[in-house]
Amino acid sequence: MSSPTIPVSNPQTQSPVATPAFRAFLSRISTSIRQGFSQRRPWSELIDRNYLARPDSLSEAATRIRKNLSYFKVNYITLLALILAFSLLSHPLSLIVLLSLLASWIFLYLFRPSDQPLVILGRSFSERETLGILVVSTTVVIFLTSVGSLLISASMVGFALVCAHGAFRVPEDLFLDDQEPASAGLLSFLGGPASSAAVAARV
């Protein structure tokens, strides 16, 4: 009598979206955004006409910009993000190309386990080859297509608006007392646990 066959399950590759590192990365981003918006100043304070006045000199304008950037940094980042979003939404093809490029970096390199080679159309690509293809693709998309000019023009418009507001917004005494770490806020997820999560995914 033959012995019963023991079923053997073939382990399947775990999707990058389902990895703990990717979930930790998304959680860190969500937490950082919420913390950043909690530091946002009231928009009514940003556009209060009672504190708008033309600077007397370039040095005064530079001082105002520096203090306003420190105080309204979350509002300014939000304004820049809205301008970039509006520019991309008004050019759907550029938005699709940029999202595809971002997804390629996330799923083909950052959160793909290093022990699993990339296989496309039956050809296996090493980690170095994958990185080279992504770098070349990013360079082509940013510098040789309309995506780069769109991002640069939108960023320049945003920075111009921020600098104009910062130069004409008269600072108050509370600016001098409100000192916060430069790394806090919306962009803090770029370091710390977020970068650790990406590194962990490569191991």
Automatic annotation (TrEMBL):
A single cellular component GO annotation: endoplasmic reticulum
Transmembrane segments: 71-89, 95-111, 131-162
Cellular compartment(s): Endomembrane system; Membrane
Keywords from the named record: Membrane, Transmembrane, Transmembrane helix, Transport
Pfam families: PRA1
InterPro entries cross-referenced by the UniProt entry: Prenylated_rab_accept_PRA1 (IPR004895)
Main location as per UniProt: membrane
Membrane topology recorded in Swiss-Prot or TrEMBL: Multi-pass membrane protein
Any one GO BP annotation for this protein: vesicle-mediated transport
Function noted in UniProt: May be involved in both secretory and endocytic intracellular trafficking in the endosomal/prevacuolar compartments.
Family the UniProt entry places it in: Belongs to the PRA1 family.
Protein name in the entry: PRA1 family protein
Organism encoding this protein: Salix udensis
Biological classification of the source: Eukaryota, Viridiplantae, Streptophyta, Embryophyta, Tracheophyta
